[in-house]
Amino acid sequence: MPLYHTEDQAMLAETASQFIADEGAIAKQLRHLRDTECKDGFGTALWKQFAEMGFTGILVGEEDGGMGMGHVEAGIVLEEIGRNLTPSPFLTSAVVAATALGGASAELRGRYLPGLLSGDSVFAVAIDEGLKHRPERIACRAEKAGNGFRLSGNKDFVIHGASADMLVVAARTSGADDDREGITLFAVPRDAAGMSHDAVRLVDSSVATHTRFDGVELDGDAVIGEVDGGREVLNRMLMAGRVGAAAEGVGVARGAMDMTVDYLRQRKQFGKLIGEFQALQHRAAHLYSEVEIARAVVIKTQQLLDEGSEKADLMSSVAKAKVARAAGLSVREAVQMHGGIGMTDEYDVGLYMKRDRALQEFMGDAWYHAGRVAELSGY
Amino acid sequence: MSDLEAFRAETRAWLEANCPPEMREPVRDEEDVYWGGRNASFKSDAQKAWFEACLAKGYTVPAWPKEYGGAGLTPAEAKVLREEMTRINARSPLSSFGIWMLGPALLHFGTEGQKQRFLNEIARGEIRWCQGYSEPGSGSDLVSLQTFGEDRGDSWVVNGQKIWTSYADKADWIFCLVRTDKANKYQGITFMLFDMASEGVSTKPILLISGSSPFCETFFDDVKVPKSYGEDCPAQVGEINRGWDVAKYLLGHEREMISGAGGGDRTATIGAVLKRMVGEIDPVLRAELAMFDVDALAYTAMGEKFLDEIKVGKAHPAQPNMMKYAGTELNKRRHELMMAAGGSRALEWDSAETRGGQVARGWLRTKGNSIEGGTSEVMLNVISKRILDLPGA
After folding, report:
1. pLDDT at B87 over 90
2. Which residue among A49, A302, B160, B218 has the highest number of C-beta atoms inside a 10 angstrom radius?
3. Which CATH number does the domain housing residue B167 bear?
4. Which CATH architecture has domain A125-228?
5. CB contact, 8 Å: B383 with chain A?
6. Are B386 and B320 in contact (CB under 8 A)?
C-alpha cells in the first residue's frame, strides 16, 4: 500500500474536513460547552450528526450494519477532530470500544452496536488504574459468582465515564496483578448497581471519572471474548487507542502549527513581519519537519493495523511516542511564537496546548511508549 | 497471481541464483563498494560475478530505459526489486555519482546523443564521474561560483578551483558548474561535462577529521573543453548559461540521497545492536536510545511515504530539503549515541577490535552530513520560504 490516501479516503477526508470545520468548530463546540459548563464534556447533537454522516460506524463490520472500514479512515476523522479541538466521544466509543465489541459475542454486538450506529449511545473504556497508563498491571477484580461475576476495584481517567451508556472494563479474573493472562473484559451497563463515578473536569475541559466498582453483579453474557483470555482483545483496543490518539494528535499539531505560521506571516515588530526573522523561520521549519514525520508514521501504522501485520504493536508505540513529541513541540512553539496573546484565554492557541496535554496521557505518554519500543526491541 | 507478484517471484528466484553469498554480507569498508571506471578492479570473484550478472540483466540501473543500459522497470517493479534485494541484504552491484546524479539529470535534460553515450557508459560502469560544484568562496552560496569558461569558438577554456569534489582523484570525468557569463548571476552558469584526464586538471585530496580523504580540491588551469563530443552530443547539459536549472534539479536528488530516504543502514534502529555489543546499558542512556529508535523508525516511515509520493507527484517539490535536514541530523545523533554506548573502546583509532577505528571515524564522518549538499541551516531556510511561505529576508 502506498503511504497516501486512496481516492475514496481522500474523498472521506474532504467530507470530514468540511463537516467538522463547520459543525465542530472551536467557538461552536469547545468554547460553548466549556462556557456553559456542559456536564458531559461533549455535544450530543453533534454526536448524532457524526452518526448520520456514517462516522460512528467506520470500524463496525458490515455484517453489523457498519461501514467495515479501517484505521486509516477512522484516523481521517480523528485528525479533523484534533485540528478543530472538537470534544467528541469518537475515539473512546467508535474506535476503542468498537474494537472491543468487534471481538464480542453476537448477542453483545446486537445489544450495543445499533446505539453506536444511530448516535444514541456513548461508550467509555476503563483501563487505567492510578495516575499513569500501565495496562500490564490490572488489579481491578471480578470474582466468579453464580453464573456471573462480581466486580470490585477502581479505575481512573475514564473519559466520558459518567455519560457513557456502557463501559468496557478490563478486570482480573485470575492470577496476580502483573500477570499477562487472567484478564477478562466486561461490557458494564450504565445502570449497574454498585458502580459510582467521581466526575472531574480536566485541563482541556473534557470530563473524566474516577470510577468505583463495589461488588457490581454482572451476568456471564457481559463478558467480551474469553474469560481469562482478554489480553488479546485488550491489546487490540490499546493498539487502536494509541494509533487513534496519535491521529488526533497529528490534527492538534497541525492545527497549532498552521495558526503559528499564519501569525508569523502577519505580525509586525521592529517594522518587519516577524516571519522574516531567521530565528523564528528555523524553528518553524524544524517543527514542520517533525510534524511531517509524525504524520508519516501514523499513516504507516494505520495501514499495518488494517493489514493485521505483527509489526503493528511495535509501530503503534512508535507512532504514539513520535506524535507526542511532535505535538508537544508544536503547541509549545505556538504559545511562545504568539507572544502575549498566546497566553490569553480569548485566543485559541492555548486551547491546543491544553488538549495536547490530555492526549499525551491518554493511552500512554512518550516515555511509556519509548520504553515499550526498547523492550519489544530486546534492550 | 498479479503481474507484480509474478515479477516478485521471478526476481526472488533470479537473486537466489545470481547473488553470491559474499555479496549478501554487510559492506565493511570502501573496498567492498564497486565504483567502476577506467581504473576499476574487482576485490573478489564474487563482486565481479555479481556485477556481471546485474549488468546482463540491466540491474545496475534497473529503472532506466533499456536503450540506455537499464532494465526498463516500472516504479512499482523497481520497488519490488529493491525490497527483494533488501530482504537478502544484497549489496549494490555498482555505486556511482553517474547513477545517482548525472544520470537523472541527463534523463531529464540530456539530448538523445548524450543519453546514448553517457548513460550507457554509466550503466556499464565504464566511466566514473565526479561532481564539481562547491568552490572555496562558494559553499552555501553556491550561485556565486567563479570558475570561468572562456568562449573560444568551438571550445571553452576553463580556469578556476573546485573544492569538496568527492573522489575527484579517482574519477574519469566530471560534471561541473562553470560560469560562462560574468554579467548574469543565475543565468550565466553552464553545466559542463569533461574528461578529468584533460591537460590542466589536477586534484589534491583533503584529509578530514575522520582520517580519510573522500574529498578533493580540484584545479583547472587552462583546461580546453570541446563544445561538442559528436553529433547531438554537446559538452553541456541543458542550454548554455542555463546550468543552474540542472544544478537545482540535481541538488534535489543529492539531498534525497544524503537523507537516506528509502531506508537502509542510516535509518536503522540502534538500541538492540548496542545492547548486544556492550552488554549493560546505563538506564538514562537506554532512555535516549529508545527515543532515538522511535525517531529512526518514524523517519523510516517518512522515507517510504516520501518515495511513494514522489512517484505520483504528490510530494512538495521542496520536500527533499526536509528529508535531508531530518535524515542527516538523525544520523549524527545515531553516531553520538554509538560513541556514548561504546565507551573507551569506541575511542580506539587503529585497533583491530574496531577494524581500524571504524566507530570513531564513522562518527566524525557524519559531522559532514549536515554540511555537504546544503547545510542544515540552508535546508531550514528553504523549508521556511518554499514550504511554509514565510516572508523573504
Report:
1. no
2. A302
3. 2.40.110.10
4. Beta Barrel (2.40)
5. yes
6. no
